[in-house]
Amino acid sequence: MIDGRKRTIQVNVKMSEEDYKLLQAAASALWPEAILSNSGILLGLARIAAKDILGKSPKAKVAAKKGR
Question: How confident is the model at residue 63 (pLDDT cuts 50, 70, 90)?
């Protein structure tokens, strides 16, 4: 675990094979030598995306929404 806290919330996700392959490819690019579980892939990528989104300034968020 990243910081020693126990994970206590369970989330079930259904996705298409195409979506899963995309996430799996992204995880393999980020962590090429790691053996990852399905939940590890989703949690790792979700944390990175959430930190990226929350770290942006309000102007950057608006520009990102508009595709700039």
Answer: low
Which helix (H) or strand (E) covers residue 39, if one does?
A: helix 38-55
Structure-token pair, residue 62: 């608006």
DSSP-assigned letters across all residues of 1-64: --SSPPP---------HHHHHHHHHHHHHHSTT----HHHHHHHHHHHHHHHHHHS-HHHHHHH
For residue 49, what are its two tokens?
A: 């995306």
pTM of the model: 0.65
Helices 38-55 and 17-30, axial angle in degrees (round to 10): 70
Q: What sign does the CA torsion over 46, 34, 12, 26 have? A: positive
